[in-house]
Amino acid sequence: MTPEPPPLPPPKPLTLPVILAFVPSALALLLFSLTIPKAHLIPYCIIAAGISIVCCVVSSVMLIKRSTTAAIIFGILLGLLNLALSAGLGCAAMLSSFDGH
């Protein structure tokens, strides 16, 4: 007779990593839907890009630590998507400082 293996720990909820993964998208939509004067757009974009990078790293690490194939794939994909959004916010900050003349 073999002893029964110890019970598996309950799975951690996915709500926090998923919410953190979609914060950069919500920030980008909020930032581009508001009518912000051009002079104030640069600081808002830089702050949103910083928040996006932090949320991207935290949510991807939380998903990758689950060590399941689907969680790792979604963690990597969400990380790439959020890094693209952060780069877009940085480019928007840079382009808003250019003068069209």
How would you summarize the topology of this molecule?
Blueprint: H1 15-33, H2 38-64, H3 69-96
Helix pairs in contact: 1-2, 1-3, 2-3
Summarize the structure.
This protein is an all-alpha fold and 101 residues long. The protein is built from 3 helices and no strands.
Write a structural description.
This protein has 101 residues and is mainly alpha-helical. The chain has one domain (15-96). It contains three helices and no strands. It has helices at residues 15-33, 38-64, 69-96. Helix 1 (15-33) packs parallel to helix 3 and helix 2 packs antiparallel against helix 3 (69-96). The chain is elongated. The model has no long low-confidence stretch (mean pLDDT 76).
Question: How many strands, which pairing sense, and closed or not: the largest β-sheet?
Answer: none
Q: Please count the helical segments.
A: 3
Multimeric status of the protein: single chain
> Which regions have little confidence, pLDDT < 50, spanning 5+ residues?
none
The value of Rg in angstroms is 19 Å
Overall 3D shape: elongated
Question: What is the number of independent domains?
Answer: 1
Main attributes of the structure:
101 residues; mainly alpha; 3 helices; 73% helix; 0% strand; elongated
